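Structural biology now treats backbone shape like a language. To illustrate, our science desk offers a sequence and the tokens encoding its fold:
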Amino acid sequence: YLSELLPCAGGRSIWAITPEERDKHDQKFDSLSPAQGFVSGEQARKFFLQSGLPASVLAEIWSLADMNKDGKMDRLEFSIAMKLIKMKLQGQNLPTALPIIMKQPPVHAPSMPVAPLGKLPVTYKQTSVFSHSVLSFFFPSSSSSSTTSLVSSSPMAGPSDWAVPHSSRLKYRQQFNSLDKQMTGYLTGLNAMASTLLTQTQLAAIWNLADVDRDGKLRAEEFILAMHLVDMAKQGQPLPLSLPLDLVPPSLRYCLIWLIKIRSYICVSVCSAFSFMYLCMCVFSVCAVSFEDKFKRNLELGNAELEKRRQALLEQQRREEERRAQKAREEQERREREVRELELRRKREEEQRLERQRELERQREEERLKELERKEAAKKELERQQQLEWERRKKQELQSQKSQEQEDIIRLKAKKRSLEMELEAVVSLQRPFVCFLLFRLHTVGLIVTEKDLNCRKLKEQLDVLEKETAAKLSEMDQYKKDIQMVGNLKVLALCSWTAKTDNHLNFSKDDVITVLEQQENWWLGELNGKQGWLPKSYVTVLSKGKTLKSLSIWGFLTCDLYPNMCVYLFCFCVNVRVLSIYLSLEYVALYTYESPEPGDLTFNEGDTILVIQREGEWWRGSIGDRSGLFPSNYVKPKETDVITSKLGLPGKKPEIAQVTTSYTASGTEQLNLAPGQLILILSKNPTGWWLGELQARGKKRQKGWFPASHVKQLGSNSGKSTPPISLLLSVCQVIAMYDYTAANEDELSFSKSQLINVLDKSSPDWWKGEVNGLTGLFPTNYVKMTTSDSDPSQQWCADLTSLDSMSPQEKKRQGYIHELIETEERYMEDLQLVLEVFHKPMSESGRLTEAEMNMIFVNWKELIMCNTKLLKALRVRKKMGGEKMPVQMVGDILAAELSHMQAYIRFCSCQLNAAALLQQKTDQEPDFKDFLKKIATDYRCKGMPLSSFLLKPMQRITRYPLHIKNILESTPESHVDHAQLREALEKAEELCSQVNEGVREKENSDRLEWIQNHVQCEGITENLVFNSLTNCLGPRKLLHSGKLFKTKSNKELYAFLFSDFLLFTQAVKQFTSSGSDKLFSPKSNSQYKMYKSPVFLNEVLVKLPSDPSSDEPIFHISHIERVYTLKTENINERTAWVQKIKAGSEEFIETEKKKREKAYQARSMKASGIGRLLVTIQEATELKSSKPNGKSNPYCEVTMGAQCYTSRTLNDTLNPKWNFNCQFHIKDLYQDVLCITIYEREQFSPDDFLGRTEVPVATIKKELENKGPAIRRLLLHEVPTGEVWVRLDLQLFDGKAPK
């Protein structure tokens, strides 16, 4: 009966949780301090690891216990996990799915009395184990805990003890899954094993052995067992009569263990084998009930039990949900109550603030109205007095005018009589003089006629002379060609030549050399038995059979043979020489140059300047009767149409052609052509083939034939100017790095920074060049190439195809933008050079005091900071557009950065004092003068003294409007940058006017410098520089100053009222005499310290006392933090203080208001673009503060053209989290650029730069196309560290308005 009892033997499920276990689990759960009824994953993980189980097993337990997969555990889930850990420690395998019994609340096992065996209540479940009542019947005295302990302590066999091989299990498990198409978990009928080819008898025996629970179905393990028995039968092994224990599936094996326990219990209790047999018979009789009845009854009981437990579980869940809902409601109510309290508090504070503000505004309005009434009354009184005074003066003027007219009448009458008498005397004397004039006129007419005849004769002679000269020149050319056709020519050395290499020939001036071989520029000659190569340009060909000893003899013979021709040639050569010298000294102004310095030459764009002296970057020239110094980069050489004898026809303009299409030469006598090359046309053939010389800079020039259809001739109507003569004659141009003095006659002397035209580069060490009409050799290591040696357009555009596609106007615009960036970089190099070459040695030498150094260099480092921001922004824009690619927009950068360059106001206003001090020191101290000369010998100074470098800031400021104007003139009005450039031009002109005004307001600047040196500003985190730019009001001005007294304590204070704040100080050293004029005395040594923090004028309200009839000069200054009650020395002084503070406060408030309105108007413009860009600035990280304490108050400014948004300022952080949104209207997809700049908020100076980044809208479209909004991390440029996180959402309208 054992095989039949196994499916029925069993008891309470081993996975059930007893109440005692649940109590223990609850105690452990409470010890972990759960939050809102849950234990976090980290808390549970640390606690479960104490069991010693592997992490993978604990992860499997967690996945079973965490039923709702929320990553945390409540009491039930924690208890399930503890039960699973306990069973795993006892050797049990974890179930594949969580048993239902573990999800139900624990139920106590009831104790049942021993009943007759025939009436044994048996419940049969699909798990084929005994119910709890059967266990109670067999073990009446055991509790549920002891039963569980008994079951748990039973020796359970794991899957590793099953005799079925593991490989067979896997294979037949897959086969079972493929056959169980309905996913019922079992198979019915023998057709499941029909493909085994066994007999029906064998299959029936195998089915009886494998169907352990006798339910007529094969579950997964039973099917695996059956297939294993099939394999045994196929292998010829005999099938067992009863199923061995090692073949029983592990999940059903514990039935046998319960039977063994029952047998042991019965044997001990009754000690009778009959009892055991009787019990087995009873069990067998119970089990013998039909399968259908057992299944039906068990199904009913199971459903009832499941329904009962489901109801209990639902009730428990309902109570838990109600508890959680109640707790959530309480938490929500608490939060709402706190929010309401905070909102009420905020509203009260806002109402109080608004009330204070309204009160201040009412008081300010009352004071304004009273002031207007007083002004109106005073104005009327003044007008009345002025009217009376005017009437009195008018009456006096009329009276005096009447007297004057009477005197004039008398004087005119007397003059009339005297003139009449003089007329009579003149008439009597004029007759002889008229006769003399007529005679002289006749004589002059005869002389003029004679001179005219002589001029005509001279002109005829001149025409005959020119014809003879032309004929003789043609004869000489023909004679020269005839001579070249004869071998072993004799040539005369025009000057000495020293061999540069071993194969060169040495010779002296006037030596006669025999030519053995001729190349294009070099001839092979023989002299005194030695052969070598010599330059062709150093010799001249002699007539055959004649050996002339010197060039002068040839000249005299020529004069004897052709006197008329010699005179003409001499005159022609002299004129050409003079003309070439004159043209080499004539330059054309590229820009307008204006300078306030005496000794400078000012001129307008296009003026012709005659250069007198060229040294370094500053040349001396003259225009008419004016002469002076001017910068060399403001002019260019004047082009001329005079062509040298190389072209063959003096005075004739050369014909230049540009290659339009490429051509490959078919012979050695033809030229290879590439588009864009220039060709000098030498002759034209009617067949369509022209002879020309290819002009390739830096390469050997080639002559040959080419088809005319592949070129276009450049002329006056071609739109391009003919290249200058230097392009045709010189190979390239170089700049001298050092002075060089010629050691031989054939060498060329030049000065440092002089421009040299290179004529020949055949030798790597010595080149032939020309300077000021003189030619000669020079060493190559003394010069460097100029930037003009390459195509200027390639300096800013690397893509020549893109360059050719640009319009001429856009090319010109890009050239001006490139010039702006290049000159800005050179200017920054000059500023840094002053610090390294002049400032550092002068400071370390100790020749000047600290005050004198500050007076000479003023705020030089602030200038570097200002221009560093501008240059960094330009470099970022150039980098984001692509290296050496066109720059689309610069106006927004110039407009923004030029607004923060007011450091130049202080420098320029103090420049005259600096120049005077420097001149005084050099005049009085020769050692100091020698010291300046010594440090100025640095090669980077290019021979310029310190005074020249000190002028560069003022010169740079005046050049910004010129650069911007040039770019603006080349920018179409429809261009997106046009409006920004116009605003930048206004900013640049405004800055120049402010500089001029600062120079004029020397007194204000001196007083601010005096305050800087005599007031100690301790306790302010920001470095306060008085003579500098304010945060939003332009340059700081001193409005008023004087002595004030506190009303209660009568404490003496010295107040300084600036355009942006009011500063109270107290004296550290008392004055020797009284009087406000002693405050700013240069000889004063008084010192002051700050009494209170500065009071900003946009936060104050000044008012008079409530009793206006009081004679005591008291007034009140109301601030946000406190009220100051002050007293002056008299009523007039009080009136001055009150009026000055009111005016400054109103101007400050009005400026802030206009700034806010301007930003709002730019954002609220009606959308007329092609789309919009939604930007969310989330946060910035790793910002670099410029303050010594490392703290920062950053804010972010986001712009696109004129549209601008500014975030709030966050204090004391380098990782601000703004999370503010802004929206931009897109006008041009390929020109609009999103600019993000981070600044540090300052109080007393312009905001500091913390980084900038840019993203073109075209790039955003490419990255976000068909992807939706995205978050990007952008690096901040031109700063050591920093990045900003933004969310971008691009929406293009596509002809539809946005929703």
